């Protein structure tokens, strides 16, 4: 049973527009959420995170929103750039229990010039 | 800068062979992880280690074992490789469970 779900396997947007990537989770014990970006033939790189005590975290063009009651988070990229084209993974972790992260299946973002 | 290195970028092995994947990190991190990435399945945790000689099973440990004899090195072992173990293998390390730092990955093909 997938505890972290990314229901959109792919997303295509125009350069300069907003990209919105979504992620849902089922385990209420998760209290920390992260987004990773992955280019082909490279390892994932950390992008942005949010603690469950917050509902928004912003870093430049990237903003993550957390809706705890809906067990939903989203990553907004504004404005989107062609270099943002990559696979984005949502991940969740908790301070209790195991130390590893649980990842979603990823969303491939294509930003069209 | 944190650096996580993996011994091979690409590896081709035959069914039944014993395969060693090595991972080294240079930041004195306690926690190290092995994941595999498959299309449509994301990253799935195989094993992790939170200290030297300590290991814990992840979500898909069957067919794999690990070794952590030194803090900086975490090895993944496929005792008898099978075709369903063809995948991208990713090693990561961290001081805490968040913000894991990943290596470049090893793409393993088992024929």
Give an overview in words.
Chain A has 113 residues and is mainly beta. Helices cover 0% and strands 53% of the residues of chain A. Chain A is built from no helices and eleven strands. Chain A has strands at 4-5, 10-14, 19-25, 32-38, 45-51, 56-59, 62-67, 72-77, 86-93, 102-103, 107-112. In chain A, the strands form two sheets. In chain A, strands 2, 4, 5, 9, 10 and 11 form a six-stranded mixed sheet that branches. In chain A, strands 1-3-8-7-6 form a five-stranded antiparallel sheet, with no helix packed on it. The radius of gyration of chain A is 13 Å and the shape is globular. Chain B is an all-beta fold and 111 residues long. Chain B is built from no helices and eleven strands. In chain B, strands 2, 4, 5, 6, 9, 10 and 11 form a seven-stranded mixed sheet that branches. In chain B, a hairpin with a 6-residue loop joins strand 9 (87-94) and strand 10 (101-102). Chain B is globular and about 35 Å long. The chains are: A mainly beta (113), B mainly beta (111).
List keywords for this structure.
heterodimer; A: five-stranded antiparallel β-sheet; 53% strand; globular; B: 111 residues; mainly beta; seven-stranded mixed β-sheet; 11 strands
Shape verdict of chain A: globular
Q: Roughly what is the average pLDDT of chain B, rounded to an integer?
A: 93
Approximately what portion of the residues of chain B adopt beta-strand conformation? over 45%
- What is the number of helical segments of chain A per DSSP (H or I, 4+ residues)? 0
Query: Which structural class fits the helix and strand makeup of chain B?
Result: mainly beta
Distance, first to last CA of chain A? 38 Å
Low-confidence stretches of chain A: none
Distance between the termini of chain B: 37 Å
Most extensive interface, residues per chain? A-B, 27 and 28 residues
**Low-confidence runs of at least 5 consecutive residues of chain B:** none
């Amino acid at each position: 049973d997938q505890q972290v779900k990314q229901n959109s396997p792919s997303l295509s947007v125009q350069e300069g527009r907003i990209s919105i990537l979504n992620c849902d989770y089922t385990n209420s014990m998760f209290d920390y959420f992260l987004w990773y970006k992955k280019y082909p033939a490279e390892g994932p790189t950390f992008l942005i995170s949010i603690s469950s005590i917050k509902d928004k975290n912003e870093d430049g063009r990237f903003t993550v929103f957390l809706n705890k009651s809906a067990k939903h988070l989203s990553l907004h990229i504004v404005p989107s750039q062609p270099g943002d084209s990559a696979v984005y993974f949502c991940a969740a972790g908790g301070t209790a229990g195991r130390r590893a992260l649980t990842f979603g299946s990823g969303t491939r973002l294509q930003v069209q010039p | 800068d944190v650096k996580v290195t993996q011994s091979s970028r690409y590896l081709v092995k035959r069914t039944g062979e014993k395969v060693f994947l090595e991972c080294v990190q240079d930041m004195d991190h306690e926690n190290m992880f092995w994941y595999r990435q498959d299309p449509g399945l994301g990253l799935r945790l195989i094993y992790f280690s939170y200290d030297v000689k300590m290991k814990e099973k992840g979500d898909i440990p069957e067919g794999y074992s690990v070794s952590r004899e030194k803090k900086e090195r975490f090895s993944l072992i496929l005792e008898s490789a099978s075709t369903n173990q063809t995948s991208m293998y990713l090693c990561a390390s961290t001081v805490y469970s968040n913000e894991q730092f990943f290596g470049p990955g090893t793409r393993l093909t088992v024929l």
